[in-house]
Amino acid sequence: MLLFVLNSSLLSEREIAHLTADQASASGTITVDNITGFAVGKYILIGEFGEPTSEIIRIHTSTAPTGTTVTLASNTVFDHYAGAKVTMIDYNQVEFSRATTLTGAKSVLSTVTVSADRPETIYNDLTNSTGYGFVRFKNSSDSIYSDYSDGVNYTGADADSFGELATEGCNLVGVTIGSDYATEAILYKDVNACLREIAQKQDWSFEVVTDTTSLTTTENENEFALSSLTYPIKHAISNKAVLDVRIGTSKPLEYLSPDDMDFEFEGVKHGYLSSAVTAGDTSVTLTDSYEFNSTAGTISLGSNNGVAYTLNTETTGVLSGISASAITTNVSAGGSVWQGVNPGLPTKYTIIGEKIIFNVPIDTDYVGQKIKIRYLKKLDTISTFGDRVDVAFFNAIPLYIAYRIETRKRNFDVAKDFYNQFLDTLKDNLTTYAAPTMDGTSYYKFSYG
User: Rounded to an integer, what distance in angstroms lies between the CA atom of residue 210 and that of residue 225?
Assistant: First the structure.
């Protein structure tokens, strides 16, 4: 297995300076236009990775950079010219490791010093033919390491992994990953822009997921945050992405528009306990009781349903005149209090903002049941070369990457051709991978006479 890492990975968001004068070989110091971020014992790259006269050298371990002068721990090997780039880098070696499984213990295969005149650092594992390879960068002076890379399968990468798709896209236009037009950071932007464009085209079957574990019913509540779902919903603030909703083993719930749900709650009062209630209490205190009946009324709180009171003192939020036998279970402060609706098993729902709202609060008998939602998720963002894309027709992605690269190269006619091929691929798959329609069940009320 040939393992390699792009040396350009060391350059991301690093401090950069430039030589202000020609520099002869065997120099112990260099002069630069600024020394921001340069410190004793750090490593610098003079030049660009892959150039024959580039070199990595350490800053002196006790003489701090000052003014425009950087003292080196050893003399330079090559001549360098004014304007050459000088980049701070955190590491000067690559550690190659292998594990038998993706999450298994890693064994070091070799530690290789980074060569500035090469675009990548390579290790050829001649012993193993299975397992997973990993790399991490190392600072040989301080024995400080970067995080490990994603694991690479010795038997080959998945065809829908971003690394494979990015390589194919670059091959289409004759560039290599890490080159000026195809840096890792740029390619991540390319693929995520591609996924956004695919997602906007229509709703797709590969966006459909079912979450049966994230949301659980809570006693006497009817609103639950959708932010708890495993994957973010594709279309926020509406039910457009929700295919169906069930509670426990119930039938699919009927969807209502927010306006129709408001109609369901016409005349319903809802408040919250200001302080805890204990079994046997003859009054309850709400944070605000102005909406509740001012004289006699009936409320539900916790598992206590049909609790009658005789007086609402609105200025204090106290509902009093409750029979000592009416409240049989304790309810914590902040619990919901309802009037005009009986808790039960919901039959209808709506989506408002990032909340799902049911037509009745949850009765005690249904507390703890799972709210099962089948919905369209947002496509996963790609952040590593090992990430797999969600798109079923992933052959479209290299075309899009090629289009973006050619656009950066200002080859607009070629770019347009790749983009049209990308659109044609989407068109060919519109029907095959169309998402199922939303819950199409119709509900009718028949009246006679």
Answer: 16
d(CA 84, CA 136): 28
Beta bridge partners of 22: none
**CA distance to 107, 141, 219, per residue, from 96 (Å):** 9, 18, 54
Pairwise CA distance, residues 417 & 411, whole Å: 10
pLDDT for 97-114, tens place per residue?
Answer: 999 987 889 999 999 999
Residues linked to residue 255 through DSSP beta bridges, in sequence order:
349
Q: Which two tokens stand for residue 297?
A: 């009324």
Q: Do 7 and 120 meet the contact criterion of CB atoms below 8 Å apart? A: yes
pLDDT for the residue 442: 40
**CA 98 vs CA 19, 28, 110, 133, 357: distances in Å:** 40, 39, 10, 5, 50
Query: Which of 438, 15, 425 lies closest to 198 in space, CA to CA?
Result: 425
Structure tokens at 94: 């690559």
Residues whose CB falls within 8 Å of the CB of residue 65, separated by 6 or more in sequence, listed in order: 35, 38, 39, 40, 59, 71
DSSP letter assigned to residue 389: P
With 0-12 CB in 10 A as exposed, 13-18 as middle and 19+ as buried, what is 361?
buried
**What would the mean pLDDT of 296-301 be, rounded to a whole number?**
96
Burial class of residue 198 (count of CB atoms within 10 Å of its CB; 0-12, 13-18, 19+): buried
Give the residue ranges of DSSP H helices in 333-411.
396-408
Nearest to 252 by CA among 166, 372, 358, 362: 372
All structural domains of the chain with their residue ranges: 1-156, 166-203+380-429, 269-339
Please give the model's pTM, rounded to 2 decimal places: 0.65
